[in-house]
Amino acid sequence: MAAAVTGMQMICGAGLSSTSIRSNHFVPLKSVVHFKKDLKFRIRSMNEGGDGDVADEKEKAAIPVPPRLFSTPPPPPQPEESTKITTIMAFDGPAPERINGRLAMIGFVAAIAVELTRGQNIFSQIQNGGIMWFIGTTVLFSIASLVPLFKGVSADSRSGGVMTSDAELWNGRLAMVGLIALAYTEYIKGGTLV
Q1: Could you read off the pLDDT of 20-76 as tens digits, one per residue?
Q2: What distance in Å separates the CA atoms of residue 106 and residue 134, rounded to the nearest whole number?
Q3: What residues form the membrane-spanning segments (predicted)?
Q4: How confident is the model at residue 15 (pLDDT cuts 50, 70, 90)?
Q5: Cβ neighbour number for residue 107 with a 10 Å cutoff
């Protein structure tokens, strides 16, 4: 009998008295097999009439589609635009820079156009009746820019394509710098730029 036990130990690869018995001990089957608890098996059969394709389509339609793991979250809701005058006319509000930029764009183009047609620098344009045009244009464009903001319409919601609200802001900034540079250059030069 000892020979049979020794033979079995050799076949199994480890003796009962060896120190490696701990690594070769019996492990219950339920701890080795890891199945999902909600795993479902389907048994399908095809009939002889060739309707198997229809049955497959019905089964595919009945299988729920798992949710995507990396789905894009919905965009956050846009906050409503405030229609208070203190919010609109605040330093970082939507009106001041936009209105100043629009006025600077009009002023820069008008100053260059009058300089090219009449030969007057910006200071002589202001002295020769330009101040009334400046005040009228400022009032008109300020009111026209504020009306949509008081109705809750933002410039970002109305922009698209090439004409974006950012492009308008950058054009206004460049016009402000251009108008100041034009006035400074004509002051230093003592005459017209062109």
Answers
A1: 444 455 555 555 555 556 656 566 655 555 555 555 666 666 666 666 666 677 777
A2: 10
A3: 99-117, 129-150
A4: very low
A5: 21
Q: Which amino acid is at 79?
A: P
Q: Are 81 and 153 contacting, i.e. CB atoms less than 8 angstroms apart?
A: yes
96 Cβ contact list (under 8 Å, min separation 6): 89, 90
The answer, as to whether pTM is greater than 0.70, is no
Q: How many Å apart are CA 130 and CA 9, to the nearest integer?
A: 112
Q: How far apart, in Å, are the Cα atoms of 184 and each of 92, 107, 134, 165?
A: 27, 15, 19, 29
Cross-strand pairs, 160: 163
The ranges assigned to domains in the chain are 85-189
Q: Are 14 and 21 in contact (CB under 8 A)?
A: yes
